[in-house]
Write a structure and sequence with these properties.
The protein has 92 residues and is mainly beta. It contains one helix and five strands; from the N terminus they run βαββββ. It has a five-stranded mixed β-sheet.
Length: 92
């Protein structure tokens, strides 16, 4: 299954460059191993700047999904194989 998700710019870069190899997410989508996450870089917007997608997207593979104890419906997702699929430069 493919899950389309928003991700903040600082985390997008860390995943793409291979330093961040996990995601913590609310399990409202029933994440499973072998799912694909389509991560769409999203600027949350503060002050005068509106929230918006930056135009950069990548896919990652969910290798392992772990239910986090004592944290409600959240899971840790081990991810690998980041592939940049779009960089439209919409944030410029």
């Amino acid at each position: 299954m493919i899950h389309e998700l928003r991700i903040w710019p600082e985390f997008f870069v860390e995943i793409f460059e291979g330093r961040k190899t996990f995601e913590v997410r609310n399990n409202d989508r029933n994440f499973q191993p072998n799912d694909v996450l389509l991560l769409r870089e999203f600027h949350a917007g503060k002050g005068h700047r509106a929230q918006h997608y930056t135009g950069r997207e990548m896919t990652v593979h969910a290798d392992y999904v772990y239910k986090l104890p004592l944290v409600g419906n959240y899971v840790g997702i081990s991810i690998s194989s980041p592939v940049l699929v779009a960089d439209t430069g919409a944030d410029e």
